């Protein structure tokens, strides 16, 4: 639920816009917007919001056949407060927990996981059982096939402590060919927030492409043979939520296209900037033409809302 009033306390917001969300879901929508075939493995409640999620995914061109339905837990609702817009506060309503944490090994389509050209996993999947075991089983079944991506994705509200998060997120790096995280996430999973050290540690553990987001200082992308820092693209921020997921969807698109890592991150930066300059997440994921337009003009293309 996105407030339509900026810089207003949540208690004083009068109207909201709803959309589907969750980081991997947003990444899948972003990849689909760029022309890729995408699907999500997820679990929703047997309720109206669960039905809405399935419907919205199909409208965005994302396959929903790997979404299971929990007979007891409700589909979570999340509110954001745009104070400030650059770093919104997020309020999760997931009691006693979200059905996504009830995903089990039996819910994982292992044949598909083994065969797809790209598999994306978020670190938050390791926060609880049985999701934790299901996520690791998927990585083991994948066998570090190219491209296997771990988004280090640390969400404090899902964990008892940063140390607990590091204990369970860090081992996933040994099963992936690409790892991406910001400095805080690298410190949790790798024990350092220094970008060069974090990249070194990922590469030493067998990652082929290591990506470290540095906020206003840009994004580092490192391989065994090259290391580049791409400058951020600066735009007026409407809502910072979803910018990293737009980056992720464009990253997935670039990996599948076989682009040079620096080119991948250059365009992913633009995708993230576009979403930061818009209110919503999934609804606002950019097309390839919109990314081209920003890179050519420095301006975000305006969309007319129907």
List the helices and strands and how they pair.
Layout: E1 2-3, E2 16-17, H1 23-33, E3 38-39, E4 42-45, H2 48-59, E5 62-63, E6 67-70, E7 77-81, E8 89-93, H3 110-115, E9 119-122, H4 131-142, E10 148-151, H5 162-169, E11 178-182, H6 183-190, H7 195-204, E12 209-213, E13 219-222, E14 227-230, H8 243-257, H9 261-276, H10 288-297
Parallel strand pairs: 3-5, 4-6, 9-10, 10-11, 11-12
Antiparallel strand pairs: 1-2, 7-8, 12-13, 13-14
Taken from the alpha-carbon principal axes, the silhouette is globular
Q: Oligomer, anyone?
A: single chain
Q: Largest sheet, order of strands side by side?
A: 9-10-11-12-13-14
> Rg to the nearest angstrom?
18 Å
Q: Estimate the mean pLDDT confidence.
A: 96
Low-confidence stretches: none
Name the structural class: alpha/beta
Helix content: 25-40%
Beta-strand residue percentage = 15-25%
Order of helices and strands: EEHEEHEEEEHEHEHEHHEEEHHH
Number of helical segments with 4 or more residues: 10
The largest pleated sheet is described as: 6 strands, mixed
How many beta-strand elements?
Answer: 14
State the distance separating the first and last CA atoms: 19 Å
Give an overview in words.
The mean pLDDT is 96. The longest helix has 16 residues, at 261-276. This protein is α/β, with parallel strands linked by helices and 306 residues long. Helix content is 35%, strand content 17%. The strands form 5 sheets. Strands 9-10-11-12-13-14 form a 6-stranded mixed beta sheet, sandwiched between helices. Strands 1-2 form a two-stranded antiparallel ribbon. The radius of gyration is 18 Å and the shape is globular. Helix 8 packs antiparallel against helix 9 (261-276) and helix 9 (261-276) crosses helix 10. It has helices at 23-33, 48-59, 110-115, 131-142, 162-169, 183-190, 195-204, 243-257, 261-276, 288-297, and strands at residues 2-3, 16-17, 38-39, 42-45, 62-63, 67-70, 77-81, 89-93, 119-122, 148-151, 178-182, 209-213, 219-222, 227-230. The chain starts with a strand and ends in a 9-residue tail after the last helix.
